[in-house]
Amino acid sequence: MCAGQYITMYMCVGNIYTVSMCSTGAAWDSYLAITTTAGTGLASGTGTSDDDGCGTAGGHAVLNYVPTVTGAYRIRLWQDPCTVNALLCGTVQIACNPVPPPPLNDEPQNATNLGSPAPTTCTMVSGTVAWATQSAGTPSG
Question: Does pTM surpass 0.70?
Answer without folding.
Answer: no
